[in-house]
Specification:
Layout: H1 2-17, H2 20-25, H3 38-57, E1 63-69, E2 73-79, H4 84-107
Antiparallel strand pairs: 1-2
Helix pairs in contact: 1-3
Length: 108
């Protein structure tokens, strides 16, 4: 089942990741000529997700890995997707939100 879904996603992602300038220049992703399976399918999913991330965030993740867990779970993990500034903002937001309950408890 997951393999069918992965193939379906791979069929859709080339359309989603093609830029109009690429289409005019003839650099669009063409249809796949053969059915992928096993490690080739996982590598293709990883490449598609990295390309998808790069298109919308204008940078590649530092690491990327796709795993097939059992018969019904496909996991694609992208690492290093935040810039230093984004990471600092996330950490400061987490620090503020974790200190609020403690301050509320101390006031009572």
């Amino acid at each position: 089942m997951v393999v069918k879904v992965a193939r379906w996603v791979l069929a859709l992602l080339p359309c989603a990741r093609t830029h109009p300038e690429d289409e005019r220049a003839g650099r669009g992703a063409g249809p796949r000529s053969r059915v992928l399976s096993g490690d080739e399918l996982l590598v293709a999913m990883t490449e598609a997700m990295v390309t998808f991330h790069q298109r919308y965030h204008h940078r590649e993740p530092v690491t990327a890995k796709t795993l097939l867990l059992g018969d019904d779970l496909l996991a694609c993990v992208l690492g290093g997707v935040y810039t230093d500034v984004e990471r600092t903002m996330i950490e400061s937001s987490a620090a503020r939100s974790s200190s609020k309950p403690a301050m509320t408890f101390k006031r009572r």
